[in-house]
Amino acid sequence: MVGGPRGKRAYRFSAVSLVVLVTMGIGIAPAQADSKRSAQRVLNSLPVSPERTSGYDRDLFDHWSDLDDDGCNTREEVLIQERKAGRVVDCEVVGGRWRSAFDRDVTRNSSSFDIDHYVPLKEAWDSGAWRWNAGTRERFANDLGYRGSLIAVSASSNRSKSDRDPSDWLPEFGKCKYAKTWIAVKFRWRLAVDAQEKSTLSRILRGCSPRMKVPSLARVVTR
């Protein structure tokens, strides 16, 4: 986090301290935080499975929480870390400026931007989060342990994206970064990809630099 409030500490995860929980019948080896690997190999490590198509409710994912109990909720935290200008007063950015990665819109009014779950909550549910307990769903919905999990983007681009995966929606700009970050979030949370989603991501990666940063695994507890 950039200049966080009241001595804010960032979440850090050590691969040594992580316990690899097996979900969907497949174990994925831990990665050192931000280690670099072949993007295609990381994608290939994800389980491939049809999506679950029932049971989702947004209220199953509590957000925006204050999981580190510092007085700032997750929306405020992301606006602080994503700001291009401005100073932090308690949990607010004064004189802030933000730029949306999806469409490059710029704003000084944070209320015109949404906090986007890079992998939407419904997509997460359909890809394996339906197995998680409530605490894991809340940690996913408020994940500050990996910078790519949550970003501030224009409301129009976020609503255009909605809950669609890369086979149905891609940003106007930064498609390589989008694909790699999508893969990284799914790797971090041991989520599956469906066949069409994997095919689309593989096609995008063919036009990108071959390596990507791989986040450490998050703690996942099933019901």
How would you explain this protein's 3D organization?
By secondary structure, the chain is of the alpha+beta class. The chain has one domain (5-214). It is built from 7 helices and 7 strands; from the N terminus they run βααββββααβαααβ. It has helices spanning 39-45, 74-82, 121-126, 134-141, 155-161, 175-188, 195-205, and strands at residues 35-38, 85-89, 92-99, 106-107, 113-117, 150-154, 211-214. Helix 1 (39-45) packs antiparallel against helix 7. The protein is globular and about 45 Å long. It starts with 34 loop residues before the first strand and ends in a 9-residue tail after the last strand. The model is unreliable at 1-32 (pLDDT under 50).
Task: Provide the fold topology.
Blueprint: E1 35-38, H1 39-45, H2 74-82, E2 85-89, E3 92-99, E4 106-107, E5 113-117, H3 121-126, H4 134-141, E6 150-154, H5 155-161, H6 175-188, H7 195-205, E7 211-214
Antiparallel strand pairs: 1-7, 2-3, 3-4, 5-6
Helix pairs in contact: 1-6, 1-7
Strand count, sense and barrel status of the largest sheet are: 3 strands, antiparallel
The average pLDDT is 88
Helix fraction by DSSP (H/I, runs of at least 4): 25-40%
What is the strand arrangement across the widest sheet? 2-3-4
Number of helices: 7
List how many beta strands DSSP finds.
7
What value does the Rg take, in angstroms?
17 Å
Provide the low-confidence segments as ranges.
1-32
The total number of structural domains is 1
Please give the alpha-carbon distance between the first and last residues. Answer: 32 Å
Order of helices and strands: EHHEEEEHHEHHHE
Instruction: Provide the β-strand percentage band.
Output: 5-15%
How would you describe the shape? globular
**Class by SSE composition:** alpha+beta
